[in-house]
Structures are given as structure tokens and as C-alpha cells.
Amino acid sequence: MLRGGIYNHNMAHRLGFGLSRELWLVVFGIFLNYLGYGAVLPFEIIYLHDGRGFSLGVAGLVIGLITGVAVVISPLAGPLIDRFGARATATGAGVALAAGYAGLAFAHSPAQAFLAAALAGAGNGALNPSQSTLLATLASSDVRHRATALSRVASNAGIGLGGALGGLVVGYGLTGFVVLFLANALTYLVYVFVLVAVVRDDVRPEPIRGGYRLVARDRAFMHLAFTNVAMIAVGWGVFTWLIPPYAKDEIGLSERLIGLLLLANAATVVVAQVPIARLAEGRRRVVLMALAALIFVGACLLAVAAGVSAGLAYAALVAAVIAVGVGECLHTTVLMPLVADLAPANLRGRYMASIGLSWWVGLALAPTLGTQVLSLSPAAVFLAAAAVAMAAAASALALEGRLPEASRMTPRPRGAAATAPAAPR
Description:
Growth Hormone, Chain: A, 0% strand, disordered N terminus, mainly alpha
């Protein structure tokens, strides 16, 4: 239930893009959240390695712990969402993230960093599924892909601007790193305030018995989740956590240029996400997923080429992160709306938690395994990632036969939503 009563679908259409005022305000909170997150994201390993003096391997394990704990917490968040609601769960997750990143700002030893990372990981594990469930609840089924697109535009605009600002601030050394981590913690608290001020407890259907056993028996969903692990490991994990230290240590790029790489990726998503969401309407979902995976393959090969030719290194990395941005748009246009279609309403929290688990498993693999090999053979890391993405493309195409007929295409919006003006970019 939203402030002012039950969600009014007609009101949503009048507000543009087929989405409600409450959803637009939640998306604004997401933008602020990602503004802070984007400022620290490309510099997490660099901060721990250069700023706090941790070895590259320990720094990678600390960041890997954030995603590793998220892997453990994500399935536990599903029953909480189904029992207490997406809004309450997301609020708790935001508080945990704020505390975790504030702790990392003052982590002088690996033990302190591991403790703070565990707290941040707990928040991450709960935020992903609760936020996805909240967006699915606020949008009707025919415009969920548009709601996903809008949230992606907001998050990537925040990440891009944050990354560019972060690249400037870290030039001030350790003090700059500390300021960035504290600012990130503050934006999580702002996001919590938006949730509390805008969204009341959502209406939840009566619980049913079976829980995760029913999720595990859904063969189409499980196939999607395993495919998603590979997609996220390459398209998000590799290009978020391995490209920055690779660019700095192997190619010799400055922090400012690394920040601009993240900006290029985020700007691509901001520009391309909404048009791709519209383009997807009436088209086969698995084809879009497979195309995204093939784009990731090409981006990995560009990363390898960057290490071969010093003169073309930066141009190759820019092309790679732009390509990854397009692939991300294709994949996310499909993923969460498809999960929402497959999930019964009274198990939606568990479905979103399960896909969130696959997300965090993929993210955990890149920094935890990749950093251990990166200093020895960057080419081997990126070639292995290309092979994983190729396998994901084949898996995506094989998924279609398991999907219900009604879920195979991205729906075209009904009525007024079909002609609503595009979201601002």
C-alpha cells in the first residue's frame, strides 16, 4: 500500500512513462544512493591496496567478502520480504550498508576491513531483492521493463557522475578516499529516508507452504538463475573490479582516466537503456540475453587487446566499457521483468532473493578469483571471461523452451502507457 491508499494505475499513466509518482521518487532515491556508490566503486581495491597498505590479494578478498556475505544473506532476505514487505527489508539493508561503508572509511587493519565488509555485504544481500520486489510491486506487469529501465538510468547516471567525481577526489590521497566512503554511507541513509517518507507497507498476499522448495522446482527459473551467474560475473564483476586495477597497474592509467572509463560505461546505459527497453517490446527475451552475452565476449577481447598495444590501450578500454553498457541494457531489460512474470505473488520475495543470489555469486567470483590471477596473466583472466560469456549465450537460447508462452516476449504496454512520454534522461 502506498501513501494515499492503494496504487492507482490510471494516475500512474498520467505521470508519464506509465509509472507512478511513488516509483519516480524511489528512483530518485536510487540515483542519490548510486551517486555515492559510484564514487567508491572503481577505487575500492585501489584504496585498500594503496591507501591502507593491504596486499592486492587481501584487498581483493575484502571486496570479495562484500559480495560473499551478500551471497549468504540474499536467500535469507526472501522470506523477510514475503513476511514483512519489500520496503521494510530495503530500509534495514540501507542502514547496514551505511554502517559498513563508514567502517571501511576508517579500517586501519585487514580485520577491521573484513568486519566492515561483512556488514556492507549483509546490506547488499538484502537490498538487491527487496529493491527489485519493490519496483515490481509499484509497476504493473506490462510496464515492468520500463520501470527497470528507469531505475537503471538512475543508477548508472549516479554511478557515472560519482565515478567522475571520485576520480577527482582521490587525487587528494587517503583523505580523499575517506571522504568518498563517508559520503557513500550518507547516501544510503538518504535512500532510507526516501523509502520511509514515500512508501508505506506494501500489501502482501497470504503466505503459502513450500518456500524455496517451490522456487527450486521451477526449472525455467533455475535455468535463468544459473545463466545469470555467468552474465553478471563477466558483464558486471570483471568490468567493475578487474578493469580498474588492470588499467592502473598494467597499462599505467591515472585514477582520473579510470573514473572516466566508468563514466563512459554509465553514460552509455543512461543514453541507451530506455530506447532498448522500448525496442525490446514485442521481441523474444532470450535473443536479447544471448546478444548481451556475445557483446560481453567482444568486450573481453578488447580488454586483451588493450594490453597488447600501448598506443591503442585507452581507446580499446573505452570501446570495451561502452560495449558492456549496451550489453547490460539488453540483459537487464529482460531479467527482472521475467523473474516477476515467473514468480507467484506470494513468493515474489523469494524469487527476487534467489535471482539476487545468482547476481552476488557472479559478482563474488570476479574479485575473489580474478585478482589472484590478474597480476600473473591479465590476458588469461579476460580470455576465460570471454569463454564464460560465450557459454552464457548458448544457455540463454536454450532457456526459451522452458519458459511459459506468455513470458517469452517483452510485453507491449497497454492503453495510455503505450503512448506515455519517455522518461527524462
